[in-house]
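subagent[fold] <- orchestrator: predict structure for attached chain, return tokens only, no commentary.
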Amino acid sequence: MLITTLAMLVAFEAQAASGTLVFIGTYTKAPSEGIYAFRFDSKTGHMQPLGLAAKVADPSFLALHPNGKFVYAVTEQSSGMVDAFSIDRATGKLTQLNQATSKGDGPCHLAVDRGGKFLIVVNYGSGSVTRIPIDADGRLGEPSAFDQHAKPTGGAGTDPKRQNGPHAHSVNFSPDGQFAMVADLGRDEVTSYRVDRGELQKAEVANIVPGSGPRHLAFSPSGKNAYVINELRSTVTVFDYEARSGVLKETQTISALPEGFKGESYTAEVQVHPSGRFLYGSNRGHNSIAMFAIGTGGKLRFLGTESTRGNWPRNFGIDPTGKFLIAANQNSNTLVVFSIDQSTGKLTAVGDPITVGSPVCVKFLP
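subagent[fold] -> orchestrator:
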């Protein structure tokens, strides 16, 4: 009996260790203490909790190293920092390697280049962009480049409360890694930086309708289109992308809310399905995931919305197989798993909500 029990335990542990790791970034007000880890079954959508992976203050956004050995987290506070961690794949635990300053206030987003040699972090509070080198052992070096965005023309944008200054909100690398695209909510702009020369060299600026508040960006798998979700107007702007120059050319803007909705709502995350057929965006207030079909020229067709079964879905993640989406409901302290219909793109909730304090970022590590 003992031998049988031990064999079963070994088999269970082997099966658990073979699943996809999911890391959840949070705001560390009670009951959250930092970054949490789960083991995800990409066949069933089951989430096995692994507990607190690392105790760290306000790790509101995470980025994975391409080699799968390291994860980086912002500390979204007035004296911004970026933390480097090594990953124990067997347990999901994270070991802190070191910290580096973000050189700004309220860092809220970061991305690692595809070669794993540096990351770029954006500071929402001070409206700035910082490049930080990554050593071979995963540790962070001293910041090597910095750019401070100017105040909007006239000192404030269309929304005087949210656009009273520059607010860099996200950074995404172009598919070829030559450019970094920074969305600035305060300036209604997306700036492309050339980064292949070890600097932050501004290449192009794409202007968005005043008062839109661009927040996050996602590229299509083909690299021909980019999609920017606009927090203040709850819209998605579609761009054609010119890889050689880093130029974004607007082709469409579409609402992320159902027709007739009159309540208060703000978009947050935007992601393209791995198939390139669908796009998803989160609505905070309406508390839903907006679903779009991607058609000719990358243009969008609104499919509707699906409730996130919680409050204030700040972020979500699509698993690498494209079969599931996990929504992070910040204000209800829950994660909800949805299956994705591969033909229609529609979402269906799977299982019960999972409790995590103030979840605001979902990252999959296969």
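orchestrator: received. Logging for downstream: Residues 1-17 have pLDDT under 50 and may be disordered. The CA atoms of residues 292 and 303 lie 5 Å apart.
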